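in:
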């Protein structure tokens, strides 16, 4: 009997502090209408407070998930964290989360795939369920993008926000869960979207800090062009591969980078706006956090058996799509 990995619970966390377009207008040379027209973003959440990092948001998301599932941290077998803003270069944020939660029987690791981090982590977590190695895997998408955003750069600071989402994966022998996935990378795209310094190629120096090379660097037009094609193509491809027509798809859950990219993906799939999960206007681009935060926001609308397509495109370049059948009705 085939074992599949099914999402059996979801929870999210966003910080309290709201950074609106109106506030950004006072910080950089931009205006609210310009931001909204080009990105669809009205506000984003920022994690404030000394010594707070990505792990703190992830812990809050997982705590809420455990409460919903009436589970103790000791029951978790594994925690995989999709992130590019780990608390430290090492140890992994997964280690820190396990400690802060008291998940004493879990192991795990971080997975860096930029905005595709949650998709890559979800497919990886599914393998451990499908193989029978693990029974309860928590997959987290979390990023504190404010920590690598230059608030004097108007091209990038309007885009990013902070947030975390977590899902529980469990085995099922029913015809639900993660049905198929297509994941892709093209490292030649790194020149258009990356963080210039801080790694082993260019370790931190006074010069790299002075040159602001520890922030997100993006060539917006090039990334936009690749993202529109990548996300739209892979979403259409997974539908075709699984003989899904647009009527068969209940929801598209797109990475929340830009409203225009989302619209292009939905058009290519032939799905109307009413089937597209959207919260970019409230949270901006939380990188690995966007897709689980969407599922969390829309959880009450999801029905058991719904065909759902998750789709993302990220720096590096990374992109992909997952086809899943929703495994539970929300009580």
């Amino acid at each position: 009997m085939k074992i599949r990995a099914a999402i059996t619970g979801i929870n999210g966390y966003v910080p309290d502090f709201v950074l609106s377009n109106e506030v950004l207008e006072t910080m950089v040379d931009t205006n609210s209408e310009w931001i909204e027209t080009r990105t669809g973003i009205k506000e984003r959440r920022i994690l404030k407070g000394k010594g707070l990092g990505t792990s703190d948001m992830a812990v809050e998301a997982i705590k809420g998930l455990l409460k919903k599932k009436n589970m103790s941290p000791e029951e978790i077998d594994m925690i995989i964290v999709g992130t590019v803003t780990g608390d430290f270069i090492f140890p992994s944020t997964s280690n820190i989360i396990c400690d802060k939660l008291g998940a004493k029987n879990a192991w795990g690791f971080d997975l860096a795939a930029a905005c595709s981090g949650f998709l890559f982590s979800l497919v990886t977590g599914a393998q451990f369920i499908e193989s029978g190695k693990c029974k309860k895997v928590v997959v987290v998408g979390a990023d504190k993008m404010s920590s690598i955003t230059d608030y004097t750069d108007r091209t990038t600071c309007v885009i990013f926000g902070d947030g975390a989402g977590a899902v529980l994966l469990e085995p099922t022998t029913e015809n639900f869960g993660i049905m198929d996935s297509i994941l892709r990378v093209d490292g030649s795209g790194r020149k258009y979207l990356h963080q210039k310094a801080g790694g082993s190629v260019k370790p931190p120096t006074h010069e790299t800090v002075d040159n602001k090379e520890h922030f997100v660097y993006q060539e917006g037009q090039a990334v936009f062009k690749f993202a529109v094609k990548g996300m739209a193509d892979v979403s259409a491809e997974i539908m075709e591969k699984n003989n899904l027509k647009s009527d068969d798809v209940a929801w598209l859950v797109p990475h929340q980078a830009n409203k225009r990219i989302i619209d292009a993906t939905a058009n290519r799939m032939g799905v109307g706006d009413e089937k597209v999960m959207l919260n970019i206007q409230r949270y901006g681009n939380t990188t690995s956090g966007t897709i689980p935060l969407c599922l969390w926001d829309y959880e009450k609308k999801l029905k058991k058996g719904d065909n759902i397509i998750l789709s993302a495109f990220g720096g590096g370049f990374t992109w992909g799509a997952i086809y899943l059948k929703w495994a539970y009705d929300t009580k």
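note: The chain has two domains: 4-174, 179-325.
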